[in-house]
Amino acid sequence: MDNLIFRKLDDDKSKKKKKDKKKNKDGSAADSASSAAGSERNPSIDSSASQSTNNTEPSEVEGDVPAYSETAELPIPPPAFVAPIIRHLQPNVFPTVDHCIAHLKLLHAFSAMRDQIENTDGIFFATVPAVGEPITDDLRLKDKRWSIFVSRAVYRFTAWWNTIPAQKAGAEWHRLNIGHDFNHDMEYATISGRYMPFDMTNLPPLDVLMVWHAYTLNPRCFFQDCLRYGKMDFWFTGLPWAAINDCIDPYTFEYKLADSAVYKWEAKTSLPFNNLDTPNYKGQCGGCGNSFEAPWNAPDDTGFADKNFKLICPTLSCGKVHNMDTLSKDKFIREANDLYSSNYPMPGTLLDLHGLPKSITEHEKAWDNFTMPNRLLKEVIFNVRTVPQNSGVSAIRTILENALRSSTTVSKASTTERITQGKLLNVHKLSIRRMMSAYWDNPWPQSINLIGAVLRQGTFVSKMTNDLNWYHSPAIGNTVSRACTRYNRFISLMRARSRKILVPTLDIDLAWHTHQSMPHNYYTYTVGATARFVDHDDKIDESKLSTAFEYTTKEYQKIYKEAYSECGCWYCQVVRQQTVGSVSRLFSKKPIEFECGTDEPRNHLSTHGVIRVEDRAMEMQRKILKANLDKAYRKLCEERKKKGKKPPARPDYWQYYYGPYYPYAYYPYGVPYIPPFGMDPCIGSGVYGCNPGCLATAAGAYGNCIAGACGAQVANGGCGGGGCGSCGGDKAACGGSNGACGGHSGGGCGSGGDGGGGGGGGGDGGGGGCGGGCGGGCGG
């Protein structure tokens, strides 16, 4: 953790080291040998750092005072734990055990930082509306502090992002231009590059590193943004694990940089190194062009990081109203003007259905298809520039809807034979939806709202650092090595089941996340293994996740003859029980039992990407799912009792899920209890500027896609098109007629596409209506 946030006393730690150096010498060596025996390769951190804060040994025994009683109150590592040693952190095509353990170490630093922020009274002067329950109010206040902190972190990351040079292979580069050297840039986009030198003298603060980390976990967005802005060496480098590892204490997880890093940061960004000292948000008015400032939070909940952000331009002659919607619309207009004047492409229009960059000469027809929205925008640029000053992104959507209804406008946008007849291909619709997904509730220059991306990682960080806590396990080497093996199998399964949504378990997700943090290596590996750049879908509805997890469990157990999830919670046991019969029947054998040996939740499915789709059809699916799970749970209990085993426990508040809003103590926003496959309970609509856990799909709702371009979750970045669990098929992209969303055609979004998300029902869009999704929030 950043020492300016924690303000720890180094003299206490140095005193402790001197006093215990001799005492712990032999014990540490023995423990290191014991830990190393657990794995063929022992991953590791520099063991020269300070002591663990987990437990303290007793300082006194009645009748006797030990010699070390003077320092007994200081943190000392428990006898069974010696920080793992990490030696091999050079970039690798496949993530190593060392990389994964360094990743765990970083997640612990994030967790410590969050705990520090949430429990520091008085910071940001944050307030939340009272709901009458003291415990609930306290938890909501903690979450409010964290939401403000994350908003400031994204603001600070953007300032740092703007200072990263546009370069490739160490040479000065340029922003991608559709006309100038476009073929060359696209053909060699992923081939050449040079690692940027990072160490403790030039790494960013920990909060900025947290945003960078979340950014890389959206691989296609990160790739296309680096490609658009010419920051290819930055993409090629990814997270510099060796440098990051050196800066984090393996026991306290304190993040320490050299003094020169502070000076460099402040000189480059003109911002304080400490997040807590960050000044007001500064922006530029899209009406008059003058700058303005907005507080991060306000008593009336209208600060920039508040749910109801609102600010009137201070220039008297302007009077423009600023909120997230108008700022996002202003961003769209700026980038559309850049497209018209300088041929800078819009986000979402560079990668094909497989997530691969294509040049004109390589495949002219494919290039023409997915870059079509750029030409369409040039045809309507005057209308885009003249939208009402206080309008939002919905006004842009209306302009594009009208353009798609005009066969003349559509024909001018492309020379493809079918387009000249005024008919859009599904690839055109997907490209338009991907472009619009970069603008719903997203005023930042990146093509994804990084605030939501960071917040959606909350569940995963908590699981890794609090629930499972593999970092402090003496068997960490074996655990992580097996995770890497299972991740490799998961990718192989993804290749064989390219049209299905597959759900990883937590150990697989750890290796997967670690791999994504090395973008160039991840690109090379997934393209080689699956013929596509596998995206990481961090927005998937709860009920779909549960169904997909059951399918993944069945297929994995069928191929590898071992349990997919070793979690002992009631939900995972029910899923295993449901899949055992079908697997056994394939081989006409006695049912195979995949027992994990415990009822404790362990290697659970990964749920950090879960969102709740606000739609009547999805609500009905959730109710059906609950009924099916209730039935399966009762059956499991009966079978366990017959075998003389204790039935798995299920929380009493399960009954409230899918029912009326019930504020359980740990979930302070009045949202229903989230089941074991549900979204992060910390994500509620009450304290965030935009709700990262919600997706609206009603026709005409804020954040939905363009009529005629369809696509529910793609509209807000719900999936990347062709990625794991994505929508993006080539055929039957959305049911209905003439490309209209909704209707009742089977297949729903994604049926028939390479890497599509598997068909769901067509839905009830009707009349050319369009299922959409809010880009980070339906806002409450």
Strand order of the largest sheet: 7-8-9
Number of helices: 26
Strand count: 9
In terms of DSSP E residues, the strand content is under 5%
If you average the pLDDT, what whole number results?
A: 72
- Which residue ranges are poorly predicted, with pLDDT under 50 across at least 5 consecutive positions? 3-19, 21-72, 579-601, 606-612, 652-688, 693-700, 711-780
User: Could you describe the largest sheet, including whether it forms a barrel?
Assistant: 3 strands, parallel
N-end to C-end Cα span? 33 Å
Give me the secondary-structure category.
mainly alpha
InterPro entries: GRDP-like (IPR009836)
Biased composition (Basic and acidic residues): 1-14
Biased composition (Polar residues): 41-58
Biased composition (Low complexity): 29-39
Which keywords apply here?
single chain; mainly alpha; 3-stranded parallel β-sheet; two-stranded antiparallel ribbon; 26 helices; about 40% helix; disordered N terminus; disordered C terminus; GRDP-like
Please explain how this structure is put together.
The chain is mainly alpha-helical and 780 residues long. It has a domain at 1-280 and 443-536. 42% of the residues lie in helices and 3% in strands. It contains 26 helices and nine strands. The strands form four sheets. It has a three-stranded parallel beta sheet with strand order 7-8-9. The radius of gyration is 26 Å and the shape is globular. The model is unreliable at 3-19, 21-72, 579-601, 606-612, 652-688, 693-700 and 711-780 (pLDDT under 50). Residues 41-58 have a biased composition (Polar residues).
